[in-house]
Amino acid sequence: MSFRRKPNPNRNHPEYCPYCAGTSLFPDVEDEFAWSCADCHRVFSVMFHGQDDAEHRPDKAPSSAQALQQSLARHGHTLVTA
Ligand SMILES: [Zn+2]
């Protein structure tokens, strides 16, 4: 299989036209992310820019050994070593 140009791995595939909700969408040559709507003849681009960092990160989960010791301590047992 040969391509006329290298495939763009970041290209997204919209299901619906954002202007008329049409589903007849075809890649367009406007840019690497462009789609053409056959229903309303608009050309638009869909591009993924990345992901923002989460506002709050969950605490790091304790290891199994740490979780066991914490559980034992909650129930009044002292440190258990292997
Ligand atoms: Zn459309």
Question: How would you characterize this protein structure?
Answer:
It is a single chain. This protein is of the alpha+beta class and 82 residues long. The chain has a domain at 1-48. It has one helix spanning 64-74, and strands at 25-27, 34-37, 43-45. A 3-stranded antiparallel beta sheet has the order 1-2-3, with no helix packed on it. Strand 2 and strand 3 form a beta hairpin. The protein starts with 24 loop residues before the first strand and ends in an 8-residue tail after the last helix. The site of zinc ion (ZN) has 8 residues, from loops. This is Ferredoxin-like protein, involved in electron-transfer. Residues 53-82 are annotated as: Disordered. Residues 63-72 have a biased composition (Polar residues).
Outline of this structure?
The chain has 82 residues and is an alpha+beta fold. It contains one helix and three strands. The protein has a domain of 48 residues.
